[in-house]
Amino acid sequence: MVRLLKSYKTEIKPTLEQIQMINKTIGTCRFVYNFFLAHNKEVYEKEKKFVSGMDFSKWLNNIYIKENPEYSWIKEVSSKSVKQSIMNADRAFKRFFKGQSRFPNFKKKGKSDVKMYFVKTDAKVIIPCERHRIKIPTIGWVRIKEKGYIPTNPSTHIIKSGTVSCKAGRYYVSVLIEEQENPQSELNDFGIGIDLGVKDFAITSNGITKKNINKSSRLKKLEKQLKREQRCLSRKYEDYKKRSKKGEATRQNIQKQIAKVQKLHQRINTIRTDYINKSVNEIVKTKPSYITIEDLNVSGMMKNRHLSKAVASQKFYEFRTKLEAKCKETGIELRVVDRWYPSSKLCHECGCIKKDLKLSDREYICECGYRADRDYNASLNLRDAITYKIA
């Protein structure tokens, strides 16, 4: 029997006592993460060596806390969460040593995405989950807002681990479930090419055009509101710096304004993510035998100051990640064409390459008489591409 791992994320409604425990655990994880970074920097400056996450965890629990009892509050929260935050920092250091990322930054309260990790305490014990609630270790039963979203059958769906996170005052649980792989349905004998862009989000070779959600009146209204709230927050900061007496009421007003800005950011991000999920599902449900996309140089596109905001708001990387996961689940072959493949400049009819094609030319006109929309022509060329890699 083939089993696969699948994640589910949904919003929860914890009680006030549970919120206090979640915030306390997240705060402790953030402190331990920063403590590990600072301790490693200090050790490296003195002894020129790196302390691994396992060694730091042993030193923290067996030596440091015993010698400094004022830090005994670290052990008041879940030890699994604390250990996971240490291993996250250890992984960040290893990525830095391999040249895959920059030096890890300290996590700041209110700005960093720190999660509370939980896992099965015993191999024989399962994490129980019902239609409307889930039992999280050290917290207890927590109500779920979206009833019936997380699978509840322990014989076919086993919760391996999970995290609890907080964004803009709302709490979410994400669980990793081991489930039985469903038998894959038969696929059709045609393929689909997808051309991603800024004018339109995605144009497929079978005629489906997904519009740019950022040009909708709904998102434009929210972004306009976000600018207004950000200006208000900036004025409050400037007023706070000029005051000779900085009272508690002024700081509370700033925190309230920060919460407004965070909620708007979260709402905009949720709308974009939901649009990507629906676009991926609409493309995959046609059951093609293969899907071809282009390996876009997103980091290079972000360097263009005229396009950086538009490119970032399209979330191309998230679209590709979710498309890969959906293709693996359904058995569809995902082909990735090299970024230098001239999909836009190539004529789909005669194969001629139009080298003088400009970005402003929205219609492809070839000497052979072929006329088509620029992006649709690119999607056809991606569909029929011969050289590609399997994702």
Provide structural commentary.
It is a single chain. This protein has two domains: 1-182, no CATH class; 191-213 and 276-390, Nucleotidyltransferase, domain 5, CATH 3.30.420. It contains nine helices and 14 strands. The chain has helices spanning 16-47, 53-67, 79-97, 217-242, 248-284, 298-302, 308-314, 316-330, 374-383, and strands at residues 3-13, 116-119, 133-136, 140-144, 157-167, 170-180, 191-196, 200-204, 209-211, 290-294, 333-337, 363-365, 371-373, 389-390. The strands form three sheets. Strands 2-5-6-1-4-3 form a six-stranded antiparallel beta sheet. It has a six-stranded mixed beta sheet with strand order 9-8-7-10-11-14. Strand 3 (133-136) and strand 4 (140-144) form a beta hairpin. Helix 4 packs antiparallel against helix 5. The chain is globular. InterPro entries: Cas12f1-like_TNB, RNA-guided_DNA_endo/Transpos, Transposase, Transposase_put_HTH. In the N-terminal section; belongs to the transposase 2 family. In the C-terminal section; belongs to the transposase 35 family.
